[in-house]
Amino acid sequence: MAVNARAISAGEALKVLDQGWAAQATGGLQVSWMLHGRPGVGKTELVQTLAARKGAALYDLRLTTIEPQDLRGLPFYDHETARTVWYRPEDLPDDPDRPAILFLDELTAAAPTLQPTVYGLLQERRVGRHRLPDSVFIVAAGNMVEDGAIAYEMGTALSDRLIHMIVQADADDWLTSYAPGAGIHPAVAAFLRGRPDLLETTEDALRRGHAIACTPRSWTRVSQILHAVTDRAARQVMIAGTVGEAAAAEFALIADEIEASVQVAAMLAAPRDERAEIYPQSLHGLTALIYGLIGAVDEATLPAGIEILADMRGLSGPAHRALPLSELASFGFELLIGRALEKGWQDVFARSDAYADYAREREAAGL
Question: How confident is the model at residue 1 (pLDDT cuts 50, 70, 90)?
Answer without folding.
Answer: low
